[in-house]
Every structure is written in C-alpha cells, then in structure tokens.
Amino acid sequence: MNGVVWPKRPVLSAMCAAAFILVIAVALASCGGRNATGAAAPVTGETLQDRLDALQAARPDVAGFALALVLPDGTMLSAATGVADPDGRAMTAGVPVRIASITKTVVAAAVLRLWEEGRLDLDAPVSGLISAAHDRTLRADGYDTDAIAVRHLLMHAGGLNDHFATDAFKDMALREPRRVWTRAEQVRVMTDTTDPVAAPGARFSYSDTGYLLLGDVIERIADEPLGQAVRKLTKFDEIGLDAVWWDAAETPAPSAPARAHQWLGDIDTHGLHGSVDAYGGGGLVASVEDVARFFVALFGGAVFDKPETLSLMMAAPGRPEGSPYRIGLFAGALHGYETYRHGGFWGTDALALPDAGLFVAGVALNQSGVRDLRALEADLAAMALGVSDEADAGE
Question: Looking at residue 196, which CATH number applies to its domain?
C-alpha cells in the first residue's frame, strides 16, 4: 500500500408534505445537451445512461460510476456503469458505498436538530461538551477549548488541524488496514503530529477532527451511539433511508446490497476497517440514491422542524470572512444558481441547487474519477435547466 497519494477532500423519499425523489447524475462536459434547433434537450433516463457510459469509456481505469438526479419537476433518474466488486457484480445506483465526508452534512444537521430541541447551545464552549479525556488532549497541545464553540466546529473555524490529512495517519491506516481505531486515538494523532492552525473563529480550516468532536458531543447529549442518535435526529425512517447504516457500528438491513469496493489508485480500500473514518467526519454507508434522498429531504424541509434552521445552515452567520463553508455544506454557484454541496474522500459527491429544485449525487469507484464526475454533474445540470454551456461553464 506504499506510495498512495492521499489527496485533500475538497454535497426522495416520502418527505416534505409530498413525494421525494432522487437521482444521481454525472457526465463528461461534452456535447452540450442541445438539439438541432438549439433548444435545451430534456434529460431522460436514456440521456443519463448515455452520458455515464461515455464517462466510463473515457475513464476505463475507474471500476464504475453511479448517479442519481432529481429534476425540477420531481422526476427521479438514476444510472450506473462498471462493476461494484472484483467478482464482476454490476454497479447500480442502489449499491451502497462509503460516502465519507458527505456524512458531515448529516452530522451537522443532527447537531442543528439538538439546537432546535433546546438541548444544545451553538455558542457553548466545547470544553464542557466533549469528554474530559479529549479536552485534556487538546489543551495539552495548545487548544483553548473554552474559546472553541460548537458553531466553530460546524463551520471548520475552530482552529483545529486535521488528523485525516497527516502522513502519520495515512501511513498507519494503510499499513494496518484492519486496525480498529478509537476516537481518542485519532484525536491524539492530530495533537501528536500537528499544531493549532489559528485562533477560534479566525479562519476556515477543514478539519475531520473537528467533526469527530461533534460526533462525541452528539453521543454525550443523546446518550446513545452516534449512528442511532443521528438516525433519530435526522429522521432517517421518515425519509425512507432504511438501507443506510453506520460503518463498523451498525448491521446493514437485510435488504441492503453488499457495499461496493472503492479504490485509491490501484489499491482496493474495501478491507479498511470502517473505524478509520467513522466518528462524525465520515462513517455513513449509503447508495447515491439515498444520498440524493437525504439532500432532497434536507432542502425540502423534512429534516428540520423549523425553516429558520435550514436558513441558519445555509447562511452560517459569523463564519470567517471568505470561507466557502457554511454549516456542513460548501457554498458556491453554478449556472446562475446558488449551490450547496459536499464531497467525500472515497470518491463521492452531492450537489444541491435548491432554488432550481435540482439535486445530484454520484460516486466514482476510484477517487481519481471525481473531477470528471463533477464535470458531468455540471453538464447535466445545464441540460436540465436549459442554460447554454457558453453562459455557465464553471462553478
């Protein structure tokens, strides 16, 4: 497993008052999606499959892709290519994958639900909310946990470094793939090998460790394991996410297909123990269809009890100047619309254009295919919205 590049990670079920629908869409930015008259060509299931097939042909080094796309009229489309495992099982949009940091969006929503219920103050210092052992470890490395608020961690503005990005963690994780990690061990990797990056609230600095601490906060307030707490707080059962589970901590539903193999270059990561990324910064296993379902539910008002909570998540008041991150979401723009998205280290991506009613989720089964996947997502969004490539080429 030596020589692997560990890159940085860079966003319906019967929800709302009506139906939900999901779909995952990804496609190479290619022929523009316009018909002979110059009008926008409609996105169909056949179009989605054709574009995904073209992406697969262009990237034969990627074992497979899957997409789910929810159109503005509520129609759900999904498609997949390639194989989910070395035995040749066909990949589908319903095959679960490790969604990695997309889990942060769900965890952030769970924290905001605790706030909605009056069980958590977002401006409370984490010193009184995390375990005493974590608090001592952080303080010994120079972190002022009395000054780091829950809100800071949600926005990656707590000044924390990132254990997951360190060479020490990568090397240990790949050298000992079946190692069962604890949350405390991962916090110590950060404090043993890095230093604080900024004062709390001063700037955006992506930190898996910060979300790991949020996972600890959720468990301690809810008084139950993280997976169970998140499932209840974010209303998985109501949304219809019965085939989603917490890696290494929950048993998949009998109806859930086997998890797909996901690759880092030529390394099959399927055998890595789920505890390597399972404490809040990552951990959920879900299909792209289920990821799309969650995003539709989130922006459709089915997760939060109050619309003001979603507004808070999208606006993140008090965030550091220039930060691209809100609360559990990266904000951006595409084709004239505001976007909210999150990617995941293992090749996943989720994109929401809530004002357009458009949602996309996808996975590249090799991490190296994510950039092309996102280009296809942008192209499919242009087709669905009827915008020209020339007018809106980027994000």
Answer: 3.40.710.10
